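[retry 2/3] N-formylglutamate amidohydrolase: previous attempt timed out, resubmitting with same input.
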Amino acid sequence: MSSFQPHDIIAPVPGAPGANILIVADHASNHVPAGIDLGVADDVLQRHVAIDIGVACVSRKLCQVLGCGAVLAGVSRLVIDFNREEDAPGLIPAVSDGIAIPGNAGADVEARLAAFYRPYHAAVAASLESIERPFILSLHSFTPSLASRPEEVRPWDIGILYNRDDRAARIAIPLLEQSGLHVGDQLPYAGTALNATMNLHAEDQGRPYLGVEMRQDHVGSDMGVRRMAEALAPVLLTCSNRLA
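[retry 2/3] N-formylglutamate amidohydrolase: success.
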């Protein structure tokens, strides 16, 4: 796997000098590097199982508005899921929301860790080390419904996730509600169960962060991206000013 290039791993966005906010997006791409055949139809790569829809666009808009930087994953979560521990189930998924990923059967886990996972997390770590008193936005999106759990209702516009460190969450939730958004606290997921990247780069290091899940059908257009960025930007600044 030595032939893979850096753009197969990350798509960095440089921040302005002195900017202390860094956006980290684990699932910003649906790219499948050459040499890997997942065995799925092309349309699967356009769905939530392969990419957090809207995340790359909202991240870049926030970078433009705030002058902050970002580290955007350049590999689909179907190749390897950067937001899981190295030994976690589902790191290289065999099935995602009821869709079989036959090309992952018998995958060389160590090779994908070495080619993608570890360089990605090294890039996140290096970016954070280059920032004085960083504040992190961990940005994801969620689908309004899952094929595997059709009975589950997901009405929120945005969800705020955290594990042990809820400092930014307690600041952000009321501010986002005041902006008119329907906000989920530890919804549609709980950060206590799925928070690997922020556990590693934020909580274990004592760095403040905000974990955000946006409803993907609200950020699938230019207008939706702009509205979400406008809602998030002042909240990020407030969190950063109070905590970083």
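[retry 2/3] N-formylglutamate amidohydrolase: The mean pLDDT is 93.
[retry 2/3] clearing retry counter.
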